[in-house]
Design goal:
heterodimer; A: 234 residues; alpha/beta; six-stranded mixed β-sheet; four-stranded antiparallel β-sheet; 8 helices; 10 strands; 34% helix; 26% strand; B: 296 residues; mainly alpha; ABC transporter involved in vitamin B12 uptake, BtuC; two-stranded antiparallel ribbon; 2% strand; globular; binds adenosine-5'-triphosphate; binds magnesium ion
Chain lengths: 234, 296
């Protein structure tokens, strides 16, 4: 068995006294698309924020390509190759689209300007908007910028939190294509997705969380629409 | 209207001083939200730096002013940086504690100045090339030293705008200020950016201090005379908005000069203050704010 790309063991986390995650185990193998699902408020974003380093876990470990990163600062994780586009397609609103991409690319000190060109090829809709302040973008444009910003940090692991939430169908299709293309390029993807259809189309493995605990994990092929619905409806 | 035009040079000069004092706060208060009450004492430190270079080290007044600018920037920048590193960073979520602590630190710095330089004011001679003035029409004269401050202020504003908008570090600074968590997961070392922001903001206080030696004597309480006005300029301008800070400083400067032309100084201060309060009632966010879709 190869070293998992991302390995989360016994992870518990929360906000102050409120515990949200309990003993989460999650393994993501290199080059796969792993999808985390679950109803609203079960702790999916909390899990991703903990993996990204924004929340300190109370117990458990996180390893990235075999190295324990549990105590690394968020920017150190990003520089190691973990890119994260959080829920709600946040951008640096006062910065232009181009500045959003440059600030991310330069922060990781990879010096690969070709990544910016590649990200713009991936999301051609951003090209005419380069000079526009990111705060003025539509939701769909902002989501594309958020993923592009993650990609220009030269990641080996891309974490996306509900990239299709509240976005019109034709842009959802473009984002899906971007995710499959990214994975085809060898970048591992960890995806939180609410829409079962999207998850069943994209994912290699599916993990279902309920009330802060993993209640199912396995290859997508084990799940049918019906069994997935049953899991999500608990 | 005539009154405003005749007072324009004085107003611009006052505005330039206000702006210079406020530029540093635009970083530490406007952008980072830290109420650093010791900022006035950093200005004072800058002024004494100019004094030390001339009176202790014996630099020729002809160029000691020009040397004092970068030296003061470095000294007060380092002081501010140490302050951030040792104290302020532990209190980012607690503005009231920060206010009280930095107020105390300001007192300590004032006392240190008193112990080192004595309580009476000292003078820093202006270079010979800044004596005299430019006579405009109708017997309005503007001192070369005021013109120098105006030019220095403009140079600082241009440098800051260039830094924020064109440099790599400036972009990082704006990113961190907008959204700290997002900046961190984008790969930016936010602690380092905080320290840099504080260094620059505090360094600008030093430059303001050097400039103030051109228009009056230097004493331990020099900074306290300017600090309230400087905070007001940043608030009126819209927190962290360079354009707003510039506009607010010159508007307040001109308002001050115009009102002072027909009222006595304390009444003028009251009128200006009342105008600011009225303005902030109508527009609490200040002159400028960041545009986002959510707000428009
Ligand atoms: N900053 C916070 N402080 C306190 N509690 C929080 C905070 N953020 C989230 N929570 C709580 O933690 C729980 C899990 O939230 P989380 O955002 O991880 O859920 P989620 O699965 O991502 O939901 P959604 O599908 O709506 O995005 C919720 O009960 C939420 O109210
Ligand atoms: Mg969520």
């Amino acid at each position: 068995m190869t070293t998992p790309h991302l390995n989360v063991r016994n992870l518990s986390a929360g906000y102050g006294r409120a515990r949200v995650l309990f003993d989460i185990d999650l393994t993501v193998h290199p080059g796969t698309i792993a999808c985390v699902m679950g109803r609203n408020g079960v702790g999916k974003t909390t899990l991703l924020n903990t993996i990204a380093g924004l929340i300190t876990p109370t117990t458990g470990t996180i390893t990235h390509t075999g190295t324990d990163i549990t105590t690394l600062a968020p920017h150190q994780r990003t520089r190691r190759g973990i890119a994260y586009a959080p829920q709600g397609h946040d951008t640096f609103a006062p910065l232009t689209v181009a500045e959003n991409l440059h600030v991310a690319h330069q922060a990781t000190r990879r010096n690969r300007p070709d990544l910016i060109d590649a990200a713009l090829e991936r999301f051609p809709r951003l090209k005419p908007l380069l000079g526009r302040k990111a705060g003025l973008l539509s939701g769909g444009q902002a989501q594309q910028l958020a993923i592009a910003r993650a990609l220009v940090t030269d990641p080996d692991l891309l974490i996306l939190d509900e990239p299709t939430e509240g976005i019109q169908p034709n842009i959802v299709a473009e984002i899906e294509t971007a995710i499959t293309d990214t994975a085809a390029q060898g970048i591992t993807v960890l995806l939180v997705e609410q829409y079962l259809d999207v998850a069943l189309r994209l994912a290699d493995t599916i993990t279902v969380i309920d009330a802060g605990r993993v209640i199912h994990t396995g290859p997508r092929t084990e799940l049918t629409h019906r069994s997935a619905h049953a899991l999500m409806a608990i | 209207m005539d009154a405003i035009i005749s007072q324009l040079p004085t107003g611009l000069a006052i505005g330039a001083v206000l702006l210079l004092a406020a530029l540093g706060l635009n970083f530490t208060f406007g952008q980072m939200g830290v109420i650093n009450m010791a900022h006035g004492e950093l200005i004072m430190t800058g002024a004494y730096t100019a004094y030390v270079l001339h009176a202790w080290i014996g630099l020729n007044p002809a160029y000691s002013l020009l040397i004092a600018l970068p030296v003061a920037f470095t000294i007060t920048g380092t002081l501010g940086w140490l302050l951030e590193l040792s104290i302020i960073r532990h209190f980012y979520a607690r503005p009231l504690d920060t206010l009280l602590l930095t107020f105390g630190i300001g007192m300590i710095l004032q006392q240190a100045a008193r112990d080192t330089f004595g309580a009476p004011n000292v003078d820093v001679p202006a270079p010979a090339w800044l004596t005299g003035g430019l006579t405009l029409t109708d017997g309005i004269r503007i001192h070369y030293s005021r013109l120098f401050i105006l030019a220095l202020t403009i140079a600082c504003v241009i440098a800051i705008a260039h830094y924020l908008n064109r440099s790599r570090q400036g972009r990082q600074m704006r990113a961190v200020i907008h959204n700290r968590d997002l900046a961190a997961i984008t790969g930016i070392n936010t602690r380092k950016v905080d320290a840099t922001t504080f260094f620059i903001g505090s360094g600008l206080a030093g430059i303001a201090g050097v400039a103030l030696t051109l228009i009056g004597p230097t004493g331990p309480t020099l900074g306290t005379n300017y600090i309230v006005d400087a905070f007001l300029v940043v608030v009126v301008g819209g927190l962290g908005q360079l354009r707003g800070t510039v506009l607010a400083a010159f508007t307040l400067g001109i308002l001050n000069a115009t009102v002072e032309a027909w009222a006595d100084a304390s009444l003028a201060k009251l009128i200006v203050f009342a105008t600011i309060v009225a303005f902030l009632q109508a527009r609490p966010q200040g002159l400028f704010t960041v545009k986002t879709r959510a707000l428009t």
